[in-house]
Specification:
Layout (H helix, E strand, L loop, with lengths): L16 E4 L2 E4 L5 E6 L4 H6 L8 E5 L2 H9 L6 H12 L6 H14 L3 E4 L4
Antiparallel strand pairs: 1-5, 2-3, 3-4
């Protein structure tokens, strides 16, 4: 329901700039492994996490996910990431915008990336 006199600004995903938020490493075969901490709370991160034998979940990305992750460096907008994906993988990533939106939304939901907005 729309309130009178209040115009809600819409945010276009394609204009946002994704930025990586966690540790990661690139393997020899070019694939990326993300290291997600097992705890988010500051107290647990500071006192419990260092005592664990395996303090991180390891998330392995495929070729498309790895390429996308490397592009999320805070310098490219989502539409530029999509263009680079299209140039590199062609028809293999179709439907491009749907897949990219779902991938980036899942990364943001689990706090692996965040978005910054560059005001025009």
């Amino acid at each position: 329901m729309k309130k009178r006199g209040v115009e809600k600004s819409r945010i276009n995903l394609l204009d946002l700039i994704p930025v990586r938020n966690i540790k990661w490493e690139k393997k020899e075969d070019g694939l990326i492994i993300l290291f997600k901490p097992k705890f988010e709370h500051a107290f647990l991160k500071k006192y419990v996490l260092p005592r664990l034998k395996k303090p991180y979940y390891k998330i392995k990305l495929d070729h498309v996910g790895s390429f996308t992750w490397e592009l999320c460096d805070g310098s490219l907008r989502v539409k530029e990431v999509a263009k680079n994906l299209k140039d590199k993988f062609g028809e293999d990533v179709e439907p491009l915008y749907d897949r990219l939106a779902l991938f980036l939304q899942s990364l943001e939901k689990t706090h692996l990336i965040f978005y910054k907005r560059e005001d025009k």
